[in-house]
Amino acid sequence: MGEWLSEVWRTREILFFLAWRDIKVRYKQAALGVLWAVIQPLGTMVVFAFFFGQVAKIPSDGVPYRLFSYCGLLLWTYFSVTLGQVGNSLIANSTLITKIYFPRVLLPAAAAVAGLLDLLVGSAFLVLLMIHYHVVPGWTILLTPLFVAETVLLVMGLGMLLAALNVRYRDVKYTIPFAVQIGLFVTPIIYPMSFFSGRLQSWLALNPMAGIVEGFRACLLGTPINWSLVACSWAVTLVLLFVGSLHFRSTERVFADIV
Amino acid sequence: MTDSITVENLSKRYEIGALRKETQLREQLVSLLRKPFRRRAPKEILWALRDVSFSVQPGEVVGIIGRNGAGKSTLLKVLSKITYPTSGRVRARGRIASLLEVGTGFHEELTGRENIYLNGSILGMKKREVDEKLERIVEFSGVERFIDTPIKRYSSGMRMRLGFAVAAHLEPDVLIVDEVLAVGDAAFQKKCLSAMQELQGGGRTVLFVSHNMAAVENLCTRALWIANGQVRMDGSTHEIIEAYMNSFTSAGDASSELTVVDGRRGSGEVRYTRVELLTAGRELQTITRSGKGVVVRMHYHANEPIERPCFGLKIMTDMGTLVTDASTWLHGIDIPLVPAGDGYVDLEIDFLNLLPGRYYLTIWIDSVLSHKIYDALENAMHIDIEEAPVYNSSRRIDSRYGLVYFPQRWNLEGIDRSAAAEVAPVRRTAP
User: Fold this and answer.
1) Spatial contact of B9 and B51, defined as CB atoms under 8 Å apart
2) Is the distance from CB of B266 to CB of B374 less than 8 angstroms?
């Protein structure tokens, strides 16, 4: 593992060039360019705020519903879009895999890194939204990068597992969008965790994105942090990262033969 | 360890069929449900490499030759760490760059300049290195004017140039090259070859796969002949190439029996059984002469009726250079159906204007309707062509003057003849 990590470190420039390629290509010939990074979560937020906030009157822990849902959607959009790209990163780059050697993990990693630009642009809009609602964050805002980092690790863990499986079983390609769609409803984005009873909450806590979204929102908006939920989410994330990298490492030797 | 590359007992096994069957999870589940206790059918196994060992000294330039499917490309892939050997190992010293394709990782939407950075980085250059060499790379590629244009607007030739320009500036300790010179125009090929010759001068180790024997002979000091996944011969370039070319035709040659020839490809619904070289009068001949009429008769056997096949042959020099490609399809001939059974086709050449030497025939049958190849044999037979005074020039026209001699006429009406009267006629012998 140590040798592997040092090789990845030595070839890190490839990671940046691959991520840079992904970013450059993503918004080429798109008139609105990187604005799409805001439009997606913003549009979803507007729809959610109308149906769930205004019509269904779902509570939002005393925070304006728009801000509440946008906080969740920001990380969720990164997670869902990037997971799809990481999961497909190996088959999308099959010509590279069969023609040249470099540590294979750079492909999923580059996809995960490339997604961060969208997150950054989306965050800028979040700041505007907070100013609009006169939200003054406390010291806990300093913890928010931890939740972003956790999301990246989670995407990498799950993504490496899915990408490696995808090389052999193309079924994965069809599973990801479907699973992500269901994930939206078992993650506290539309509703707060407090909306459900204790027993249901502990089931939801098994979803690592639940702790991430709740924790990120609490740190940003200054509401109380549910530390046990956050700890549970980190535990699941680290297990997934371990399993994902283990599976990836054990199968990467045959990628070029079967991709 | 002073070797640049050491290969020990390298083997690579592929399981054929495994590729297709397991790619859908559903199929696996279905077969598990249907026959839960039956063991899976044994897979067909192919040894692409078997017990290959050799070592290469620093600065050696080694050509790797062999027929299609002999295992050359698999060897290069294992050496470049793209795929892993089933057993055995490879040890290599220094920075290895492999060039199995020109322009690996090029992205259509990015500009030439951007692709230089991307490609360079994937091939193992640091960004600083690319920064330093950018100007030279651009100049070498000859596409300066379009360097900030997305390469989707490039012609395939321009793409090749750009890709090779990056590769030529890699400066690795070991360079692994696969048949990349086969494409591109002649002028550029020459440029690439000389770039590779510079590499050779720089004391780099180069492994080079090619079907162009002239290129191998020019560039390499040593050659490895790979056949059926094994090293058949290893030695000086000249010796190996000679042995390799001679291996194609051991039989009498005026007529080649083709029932068992290795290195054969194709699905086999129809196969060639024999090739004969006939005179214009349909008599067998072993050697023909420049300018004669010849008939190449290709016998086949079809196991089933074949709809719209195409019969073809290529004539190559002993150095592997393509002289001409002739096929029924190319000539606009439509063959609606070939019934099951035996038959033959004749290729009639009225005036064989090849200059003396040994030429090799590659023959194939494929389908006009799809890309399916029924049968293909590289170098199925050779033809020896002898000198003949057929061009009425009374000069000796041999292989020094090229590959072909065109039927020609010279018209001198444009020269003012009046002055010629004052010059004494040319005498062949001294007065």
Assistant:
1) yes
2) yes
Distance between CA atoms of B319 and A190, rounded to whole angstroms?
72
Question: For B5-25+41-246, which CATH superfamily applies?
Answer: P-loop containing nucleotide triphosphate hydrolases (3.40.50.300)
Per domain, the residue ranges of chain B are 5-25+41-246, 255-386
Please report residues of B whose CB lies closer than 8 A to that of A99.
82, 100-101, 104
Q: Is B426 on the interface with A (CB under 8 A)?
A: no
Beta carbons of A103 and A4 less than 8 angstroms apart: yes
CA distance A1 to chain B (A): 18
Write phi, then psi, for A104 (nearest 5 degrees): -60, -25
Q: For the domain with range B255-386, which CATH number is right: 1.10.150.120, 3.90.1150.10, 3.90.550.10, 2.70.50.60?
A: 2.70.50.60
How do residues B157-178 score in pLDDT, each as one tens digit?
Answer: 888 889 888 988 888 888 888 8
Nearest-CA distance from B124 to chain A in Å? Answer: 8
Q: Where are the domains of chain A?
A: 2-258
Look-up: residue for tokens 């010759």? B197
pLDDT tens readout for residues A147-156: 999 999 999 9
Q: What is the pTM of this model?
A: 0.75
Contact residues on chain B for A17, CB-CB shorter than 8 A: 117-118, 121-122, 127
Instruction: Name the 3-class secondary structure at B93.
Output: coil
B294 contacts B280 by C-beta, under 8 angstroms: yes
Exposed/middle/buried for B163, CB within 10 Å: 0-12, 13-18, 19+?
Answer: buried
How many Å apart are CA A91 and CA A88, to the nearest integer? 6
- Taking CB atoms and an 8 Å cutoff, what residues of chain A touch B118? 17-18, 20-21
Whether complex ipTM tops 0.90: no
- What does the buried/exposed string (b/e) look like for A236-253 if buried means 16 or more CB atoms within 10 Å of the residue's CB? bbeebbeebbebbeebbe
